[in-house]
């Protein structure tokens, strides 16, 4: 059938959601409570209503000493996405079920999460944001598991339905910094992250007592110094 909307012709099946992945700035994100996010109708009668999206961080405390020198503070699972950004697994929610229902379904599809063992509940919710510009409500969840469980979850990613499509691979956050104060977490932070995934990551690292606020601030400062000197 002929395509009538040039936007659809350009983006095909991706047309409905492609706008959510366009670059934005930190100022576009307004933090709101879960109750406010879920309690309002958010433009239900407008031509394009707000959509909800939910993403999740799975991690385990580590403590392994790498190269006899650097302590890896935790194993934190992220993914290389189809669009070249780094992000957390999850996605846009459909109507008619709870956020956690759709989040669990996305996690099963994208990383093969075994929902009989690790399904997310409202208790795992950490943060919600609204981005009016994109008419998007973002919900973030975090779950601590044992190191053994975390490694099993990571391995299952390559057998997931979306491996090779929405998820190009599991990645770990380097939770250590070399003596040059750049290699490790600071350089990792200079990557491109989807949405506010970087802020979600840093928020949870502090909230879960993996690093202090001061340590995170230092990593961010060293990331900026690195970018100023090296990024072409
Ligand atoms: O990890 C994330 N943290 C915060 N915001 C995120 C994260 N991943 C995506 N997003 C934002 C920006 C995206 O465009 C939208 C939709 O998420 P996405 O995973 O791309 O959803 P679909 O695969 O299209 O269902 O949320």
UniProtKB/TrEMBL annotation:
It is found in: Nucleus, Nucleolus; Nucleus, Nucleoplasm. It holds the Pfam family Nudt16-like. It catalyses: a 5'-end (N(7)-methyl 5'-triphosphoguanosine)-ribonucleoside in mRNA + H2O = N(7)-methyl-GDP + a 5'-end phospho-ribonucleoside in mRNA + 2 H(+); dIDP + H2O = dIMP + phosphate + H(+); IDP + H2O = IMP + phosphate + H(+). It comes from the Eukaryota. Residues 1-28 are annotated as: Disordered. Residues 1-10 have a biased composition (Basic and acidic residues). SUPFAM superfamilies: Nudix. PANTHER family: NUDIX T16 FAMILY MEMBER, U8 SNORNA-DECAPPING ENZYME. This is U8 snoRNA-decapping enzyme. It comes from Lingula anatina (Brachiopod). The lineage of its organism: Eukaryota, Metazoa, Spiralia, Lophotrochozoa, Brachiopoda.
